[in-house]
Amino acid sequence: MPKRRDILAIVLIVLPWTLLITVWHQSAITPLLAARKCKGHSSNSPCRGFYDDRHESRRDSRNAFTLKEPCTSENTKDIVEVVRTEYVYSRQPPWSDVLPTLHVITPTYSRPVQKAELTRLANTFLHVPNLHWILVEDSQRRTLLVTRLLQETGLNYTHLNVETPRNYKLRGDMRDPRIPRGTMQRNLALRWLRETFSPNNSNSQPGIVYFADDDNTYSLDLFEEMRSTRKVSVWPVAFVGGLRYESPKVNTLGKVYGWKTVFDPNRPFAIDMAGFAVNLRLILFKPQAYFKLRGVKGGYQESSLLRELVTLSDLEPKAANCTKVIYGWDSKWTDKRQAPGKQDQGEIYIYCNTTVKGVRQPYCLLQAVHSYVSIQA
Ligand code: UDP
Ligand code: MN
Which one of the listed residues 246, 302, 316, 347 is annotated catalytic? Predict the structure, then answer.
């Protein structure tokens, strides 16, 4: 009877599968049943924590997965449930009521690499407690690109704009050192600080002002060094002014007496924009101090502000009395106008020996400035 044999064969095949699927299905729904049972419990039952924790873990969305023991009732005590929570990037920069605020002023202008530069800066600033970023666009109006970028960073920021008049702008590809770059933007930020904070309000949180151009790379140590600035603090800066680093010269008493620079060391303050920070109170008490826009020789921008604020003997050397380079890198190599190795406006571009399509690559230098680089004079 072939028909009976066929039926038997089918039953023998189907039956184990049915059993298998039933067992599998059972084990899949058990945690749900356990959870439902818990829901019915009173508020002081151990199950309550499970539901609360679920909300907690959703709020703390940095944990992508959380292991939970749902409850300890008899039926479910050996069930461990994996609660999958949504991953949302919600990095809040740390804030303290006792630390001085770092007001970091950045002029910026539209170009192909702008978003990349600002992203790198924002990623650095997110590691710094009490940082307030004053980003000033060189434009007629605040752009959507920068507005969105700032909103998405989660940083504390103020977004301003002022356009540099055409007659101050570069002509073609020429880089004229007498044409100020970012000066009007930095001055607007200084004005904003003076209009926002009062010098006589002793209750206001102390602050430090720092000028961080958007094409530089900043080491995290730098921000902690500048936080204790009483008037004006200074430190060495890597890869500027035609040198591996530029530095204030400091005597055994810890006083600045000159400048280790190639480009015009006789400047009153022969220092790069990235090499100093100013206490906010000093900015507020000297309302006439701005960067000069007209009649300033190349390299004298920094001096035009600093000479209004302090004398040489007031300077506070940081970074172990200026023996460590804690900041560096002007990433102009991204700028198409710059031929590699070409010296320009006192800045030299030091490249490694690796060559890609005839262009020497600067990547190994980036490594060097990320950590402390000891100076061997
Ligand atoms: N900058 C600006 N408008 C310009 C050129 C530059 O706002 O027309 C900004 C730029 O984004 C940077 C700062 O000013 O934050 C200094 O510019 P750059 O690095 O080109 O000049 P340098 O380092 O040679 O002084
Ligand atoms: Mn620059």
Answer: 302
